[in-house]
């Protein structure tokens, strides 16, 4: 007998603190015409909340975020993207440089780089941003990344020592940290898509990575190593048990017939999430998700992404003066000579 997504009986107390009523970063007051062509969207749940800036990386449809304490300008980056063209073998920094330009323009002080999980569909720019801004900025990820590192290291020929000086902080459920003097952030473990997956609750803004998608898309796949649909259902249930006005920010969006969006409230998900709205049972979700995942193709950048992302965005150790990204080949016919 499975569980069911239902309305919460116990609500978590918001963890944000009271801020100044004045924010020089609050661009929501700018005329719409001035915001239309900006490469970011601005969100602020209420006057007490952090400023959230969302940047779309269009090639992989990834959302990158900068969250800002408007008083001190201490800020964190979530899930920055490194551009990779597999056809030409070119790594570039267009998406990350937009973030860096914004940080410079707004005079932000980046104090943390946050990864929601080891992404399998795009490469992380965490290491590039860290080395460009300040080598002391910690790159943070869920502690279960070590499970994925252990699984994938042999596949890509990486040694244990290759992971030294990659991630700096390993987070677990309910860990807390501050941004500036007044913004509290809480870690929530959201397994299912991947086992290491975490989210970040910053006041009413919750950064969910790939633990939930926009309501018309529903959910992400749960068939990567260590992932499973049952855990994903539990993680979605946890998110949907938050207060209705909490804002769930997603890690990707793949819109059909609408513009890219990055946020919907818990209340909207409760009513409309295609795979997990209120009343959905665990059995229904798991049956759907497992059947769907069986017919999904392998992500285009799976291997380049994983061998870079399990090292916090560091490229594999160079050999012969060149960087090599490996693609393991499976022999569908064992008679193919080695
Ligand atoms: Fe992902």
Describe the structure.
This protein is α+β, with helices and mostly antiparallel strands. It has a single domain, classed as Ribonuclease Z/Hydroxyacylglutathione hydrolase-like (Metallo-beta-lactamase, Chain A, 4-Layer Sandwich), CATH 3.60.15. Helices cover 22% and strands 21% of the residues. The protein has eight helices and 16 strands. The protein has helices spanning 32-35, 94-106, 126-133, 145-152, 229-240, 266-272, 282-294, 302-309, and strands at 41-43, 51-57, 62-68, 74-78, 81-85, 90-92, 109-114, 123-124, 139-142, 169-171, 176-179, 183-189, 198-202, 205-207, 247-249, 263-265. The strands form three sheets. The chain has a seven-stranded mixed sheet, covered by helices on one side. The longest helix has 13 residues, at 94-106. It is globular. Bound molecules: fe (ii) ion. Fe (ii) ion binds next to loops.
Please describe the structure with a list of short key phrases separated by commas or semicolons.
globular; six-stranded mixed sheet; 16 strands; Metallo-beta-lactamase, Chain A; binds fe (ii) ion; 338 residues; RibonucZ/Hydroxyglut_hydro; alpha+beta; seven-stranded mixed sheet
